[in-house]
Design a protein that fits this description.
single chain; 32% helix; Putative xylanase fold
């Protein structure tokens, strides 16, 4: 997951003043409103199908890491064309939430994106971002946006301690430039030390998925890397009965709807330990 390892900066000319805490391009706001209009009359009540329909509109867009690294004050960054695995999932969720509200306005997508990306739904700078997926899941579950359904699928647990950010601050440009923030990050990590979380071991993931894994569910790939919880996130969908991954791929450098079985994808990487599964419930 490139949010965790983001070390690259990309220049972007803001359309709105930085004081308004938004960075985007005019083409992005136009594109997002076009997507909203395209799903406006979608009669499906299935949130997962809506997420996949919106994600379909972003196929082929570039994978670019580090786009959220805009400085310590962290303006809200919104882009359809510069996505990593996490910002792809967040953008699709924010558009779907806005469509569910009956809105076709870009500013409402911005509001929902801020709500998803930041602790308690409020952007108060770099340390308010939900950097770890475990933070992201807990916060968004509390806000009623997603549900962790992993325990409904598997009774397996794995130990978890989050401390990668505080023990590797030089891997994060903002922490490297502002070392006083490390203690704040460490205090936020503390509740996630020596705990257990539900997960599905990768060896138990079948080619055809599971009846309790639905189209449009969010999957997070767990890892054996010490101090870290997840290395990648995306959506899953069924391709003629085969469970597949829909994600912003660093390897392919774009948003892609994979056709190979997800089981094959996750087994290849020795550091992948399994998955956690989350479902949008708005």
């Amino acid at each position: 997951m490139k949010r965790v390892f983001a070390i690259i900066f990309y220049a972007l000319v803001p359309i709105v003043a930085m004081a308004q805490k938004k960075v985007y391009e005019k083409a992005d706001s136009t594109r997002i409103e076009h997507i909203l209009h395209s799903v406006e009359h979608n009669k499906s009540n299935n949130t997962g199908e809506l997420l996949i329909a919106i994600a379909d509109k972003l196929i082929g867009e570039k994978y670019i890491a580090g786009t959220l690294e805009q400085g310590i004050e962290e303006p809200l960054f919104i882009s359809c064309t510069k996505l990593d695995c996490t910002t792809f999932v967040e953008l699709v969720l924010a558009i779907a939430m806005t469509a569910d509200e009956g809105s076709t306005h870009f500013n409402d997508v911005c509001r929902n994106l801020e709500r998803i990306r930041y602790r308690n739904g409020k952007n108060n700078g770099y340390t308010s971002r939900l950097h770890y997926i475990s933070w992201w899941v807990a916060d968004n579950a509390q806000k009623g946006i997603i549900e962790d359904v992993t325990s409904h699928i598997s009774s397996n647990k794995q130990p978890l301690t989050l401390n990668f950010m505080s023990t590797h601050p030089n891997s994060y440009p903002i922490l490297a430039e502002n070392p006083h923030l490390v203690k704040e990050i460490e205090s936020l990590e503390n509740p996630y030390r020596d705990i257990e979380v539900s997960y599905i071991p990768k060896d138990s993931i079948g080619t055809n998925g599971d009846e309790n894994i639905k189209n449009g569910d969010i999957i997070a790939i767990t890892t054996s890397i010490q101090g870290l919880d997840v290395t990648h996130i995306g959506f899953v969908y069924y391709n003629e009965g085969t469970l597949c991954l829909f994600h912003a791929s660093s390897g392919k450098e774009k948003v892609t709807k994979e056709t190979e079985p997800f089981r094959d994808y996750i087994i290849r990487n020795k550091r992948h330990t399994g998955i956690r599964v989350f479902r949008a419930v708005f």
